[in-house]
Predict the structure.
Amino acid sequence: MKKLLTILVAALLCFTLAGCNSNSGNGGNGGSEPEPTDDALHIAYIVSHLGDKSFADSGERGMEQLRKEGYDARTVEVGEDQSKYKDQINDVIDNGANLIVASSTYFDVAKELAGEYPEVKFVIFDDNKEPADLLDNMSVIFYAQSEGSYLVGLMAAAMSESGVVAVNVGMDNPVIADFVTGYVNGVENWNATHGTDVKVVKAAVGGWSDPATMKQICLDQARNLNADVFYQVAGGSGDGLFEACLETGTWAIGVDSDQYQAYKDSENPEKADVILTSMLKEVGNSLVSIVHSIDNGEDVWKKTNTLGLVENAVGYVDNDFFKANVPQEVRDAMAQSFEEAKAGTLKVKSYFDFANEAEYDAYLESFKPAQ
């Protein structure tokens, strides 16, 4: 009897420990999930942090949709210490993830791990790579952000009363330069068709989570260069741009998500009232789409999958605030350009069209105001 009791207690203890080690997979930072033994997708969305009301949060909306559909989709916030990225993602793989989804920030680490874990798939979004740059278990999503930025560039030029508009970024890299190129091209074409001479100033904060520096940059541009419409491509740093616009009575343009609505629903709803529109990059939708493609066995590997206006992957917010503050003539011009770009009759300049960095720099220099 005593022996039987000992066996029952041991069995109960094992059952309890097994139950405590379970993980729902509905977000959070991973946990000690046992390695899956099935062929299902176990997705890990790698992000520095959520709460930017922009790029990262857009991707998270895609994860939320996948969870609703029944996928095991975890979100792992890894901070901004790049020296820790490989170990952190390695831990996620050890805990059962077989599909890693991450932005271009993590490309180098992802490629290294893709070589070490050929059975794990890696989707890198917001990047542009040649097939030779990718391993067989890697896929890249590239957004034609120049197309969406072109449309808000048209609007910025039209809305400027001073003749100077700004585009301020978190950090410089090829994808961000593509945003800038499209925006400047929109200003250029508005000038060409309306006989104006709107200039563009551009600055980089040096990080994605530094709103204080962004605010100071924008205040300087408003007060010293007379900029009166500001486009932010800066993640969490963009909050400082909205603060500066609120303080100086100038207009702002958001990015990636509907930032007007995000701020209206936040603890600082007054910031929404400077945001004329946001250039949309539908990160979340694209992540849902590529997971479906992978699950259906489609060939998305060792290639860059480009998404733009034609795929409704980029665009701009057309809400009541936009309609109330942007004249009909301007809205019509944006809508017409949208349709022309989708039809292929309008070719928007892209950073990737320039022969080299010097050519890109010269293009921006040609739009700088005299100082």
